[in-house]
Amino acid sequence: MADFEAKGQRMIALCMLGCVLFNFPILALFNVPGTLLGIPVLYAYIFIAWALLIALMAWVVEQRD
Amino acid sequence: MLQGWVVVCTSFAYLGLLFAIAYYADRRADLGRSIIANPYIYALSLAVYATAWTFYGSVGRAASDGVGFLPIYIGPTLMIALWWVVMRKVLRISKENRITSLADFIASRYGKSALLGGLVTVIAVIGIVPYISLQLKAVSNSFTIVLQYPAIVMPAKVGAVPIFEDTALWVALILALFTILFGTRHLYSAEHHEGMVAAIAFESLVKLLAFIAVGVFVTFGIYDGFGDVFSRAATDQELRPLLTPLEGVAGGYASWVWLTVLSMLAIMFLPRQFQVAVIENTDEKHLNKAIWLFPLYMLAINVFVLPIAFGGRLHFPGGIVDADTFVLTLPMAERQELLALLVFIGGLSAATGMVIVETIALSTMVCNDLVMPVLLRMQSLRLNERPDLTGLLLGIRRWAIALILLLGYLYFRLAGEAYALVSIGLISFAAVAQFAPAALGGIFWKGGTRRGAFWGLLAGFAVWFYTLLLPALARSQWLPIGFLEQGPFGIALLKPLQLFGLSGLDQITHAMLWSLIANLGAYVVVSLAGTQSAEEHRQANLFVDVFRRAPVGARFWRGTASAPDLHNLLVRFVGAAAADDAFAEYARARGLRWPQAQLPADAELVHYVERQLAGAIGSSSARIMVAATVKEEALTLDEAREILDEARQVVMYSHMVEQKSKELEAATTELRAANEQLKELDRMKDDFVSTVSHELRTPLTSIRAFAEILLANPDVDLPERKKFIGIIAKETERLTRLINQILDLAKLESGSAEWHVTRVDMREVVGDALSGMSQVFTERGIAVESRLAASVAPVSADVDRVIQVLLNLLSNAVKFCDPANGRIEVVLADLGGEVRVDVRDNGAGIDEKDQQIIFEKFRQAGDTLTNKPQGTGLGLPISRQIVEHLGGRLWVESRPGGGARFSFTLPALGQEAAPAQARVAAAT
Question: Domain limits of chain A?
Fold first, then answer.
């Protein structure tokens, strides 16, 4: 049960991380003109951060107890 | 190849394929070899979240708002991170209570309240109708557009059509028929529709593939990769602001945040999401993979949204083509007929998937939580007497499906044209978000009450209705537009889009803010102000503490029931075969064989039947049915007393435990004391051994020394030699005496000494001892005075031992009496009951501090280091052992310079018990 709780707390932490990443003011930092590899910075940031968050979620949730 | 008949045939072929998949999955489920019981199918079925709105509408929103469509998918990703905590709990609760729908879940939490279940159902149906109309609109629009090929004409331009030539109506009817065939062929146990889940998972794959195919075609076929699309967009005057879109839109960040929150709640409380995530879940463990696979799916289906949106805007400048249709119109404009057909099928997938699951979930709610509770309460229908109600249940559901789809069509005709796809969807999201306080509060807060949930839901729904649904109708000219612009009856404060003067927010944010304030406020305030009923309290504990305790039975249930009645009840709702299975399983778990053996109709069986029934008709209806079949009675006084008795017994046990622990503590203290004593005895034994060896070494050393002198010097002259040998003989004698005494003492202490107890006259004994010592007295010139009583009572003693004591006392007196003018006084007296002997000398006396020491082994008065010890130091301890063994006492009275008087007593005959007691005392 202790592992279950630890996993739950990590997932809650990831949710909070997501809330910070996809919110003002972090979002505003990337809401600027310019491109990254031809893609507008804001779009590139959102998709990269999103993919990273999913990867972290997969890593935490698939860990062996 | 985009002729009308090709499109229609392909569509029906696709629906047929879905049906085949569902049929196959159902067959496999019946055989017990489920194909949906794996995490990948579970994750794909969750993707029913992506509807025609995603498929067509995301591009539409992106074309006008840039990234504004993304919160709809990022919100669920954030919520799913919490699923490990929240969804696991919901899953466990739902499995233990056999929950059949979201309405059932909320009703069950608040004391199986039929009223609450009904309210949730009404809100869900009204809230979801716009969403269903969105699907109808998407399918009929895409169909209309495809039919115009190769021209690209918007449906609105085609012109109004009579109702029976309206594709949307036909789409609605076909989908209703399909869903009825699909979801209500027979009653599913606990609402597990395995075939439906398999088909939905397949549809999720189809729509993803179709969307990615068109995305790749637009990005890499029409344009030259992502960079090319975006750089062309950057040169376009109209599109450039969209590249950093959150600055341009008023309240951009606020709207972004609210959309995120809204979709976080939607992923939990949309009836179709609850259906696939909770009701259709076969194993809690599938959550692990779904937690990251489903967000990955949403990421994948959104990657190409922006390129398609910008590509479409660049391709069709001037807004002649609706952005909601870019996914379809771009391949058509490029003459990609096969791709256009694939897109059409993908959109059909997205729409049918949503419609099938949503209407099945809603029809279950309508049947279990709205219609059945009402029908069951109407006594005039005599439903209780009907032998088989499964047909009725299926009938209600089929009608509910048809009705919901027709309502969707009606909304489409009334209001659909005035809004883009996304806006219609968000109205529904806002409606289901109203379930959040009651449902989430219900699983984490025990204090939430039925009334609180009811008023919270009602308040939130009313605000939603006023600020979102009525304006939608007003814009479609079904209400006077002045209602929006001047407020009802001209009251500006009540303007639906600027309620109480709150302006500057977009419509959804504004509505969410007010409705959640009303909802949460009413829920919390009413809950805190009221109290819970017993049933509510029980359910609250069951829900909130689901991980903490095993499911409890109806412990305090009291009633009369019969097993055949309960069986009949089950047969009527789930059919004979399923009821027989359920009873056989119940009996097997209790080691009985049913129907050979009768089952006791106790509280447990009633509870079991209610749970089975809840799986078919929902918990509130099940409660009503069971209550009607079973004559439930309130607790009688006797039973209350019995319960009290049990409580009292528990208190008694706890008292007993307390007492035992006190006793244990006392025993521990005793044991500790005994242990201390043992340690002390052990130390004394060690001292004794070391003293004994020391005492033995003294004579041995002198014997050895003189023997060695004699050995080394053979020419020692005779007188000298005689003197040495004399010393050796004397020391040997001393050694022998010492060893004898040690043995004697050891025997006395261990209790193994032999005693020859006889009737003894002390006068004779004292006389014998004195005469034995007379030679010594004469030699030393000591005057002896004996004052013996004329007659004393006889005592029971060992004569030799008593003489040994007397001789010891007398020789001590001889040793320590005044060397020049020695005097010894011996007194024998009968004290009545005991006989006392005193031996008094006129020596130096004994210090107060030495008076106890002299009775210890090897201890003598005075400094043994400077004075040569006289005697062995064992005489007095031995004497005391003897006297005490015989039941008497030995002590000394003395003061320095005044001589010493040693006295002992022996009990007179007639007190036989005394020696035995004394022996016990000596042994310890």
Answer: 2-61
| N- to C-terminal Cα separation, chain B | 116
Model confidence, pTM: 0.66
Q: Is B226 on the interface with A (CB under 8 A)?
A: yes
pLDDT tens, residue by residue, B71-92: 899 999 999 999 988 998 899 8
pLDDT in tens, B359-385: 999 998 998 888 888 888 776 766 666
Q: Do B245 and A33 touch (CB under 8 A)?
A: no
Does A2 touch chain B if contact means CB atoms closer than 8 Å? no
CB within 8 Å of chain A, chain B residues 227-246: 227-228, 230-231, 234, 243-246
The minimal CB distance from A12 to the residues B85, B226, B227 is found for: B85
Query: How much is the pLDDT for B607?
Result: 81
Residues in chain B within 8 Å Cβ distance of A15: 78-79, 81-82
Q: To the nearest 5 percent, what fractions of chain A are helix, strand and coil? A: 70, 5, 25
Range 13-32 of A in CB contact (< 8 A) with B: 14-15, 18-19, 22-24, 27-28, 31-32
Angle at B238 between CA B234 and CA B241, to 5 degrees: 65
- pLDDT-based confidence at B861, cuts 50/70/90? low
Give the C-alpha separation, B800 to B806, whole Å: 10
Inter-chain contacts counted by CB atoms under 8 A, chains A and B: 102
Q: What is the ipTM of this complex?
A: 0.94
Query: Domains of chain B by range and CATH?
Result: 4-380+389-433 (1.20.1730.10), 553-632 (no CATH), 637-730 (1.10.287), 754-923 (3.30.565.10)
Give the three-state DSSP class for B595.
coil
User: Which is nearest to B918 in space by CA: B786, B806, B796?
Assistant: B796
Top-confidence range, B444-458, B523-537, B789-803: B444-458
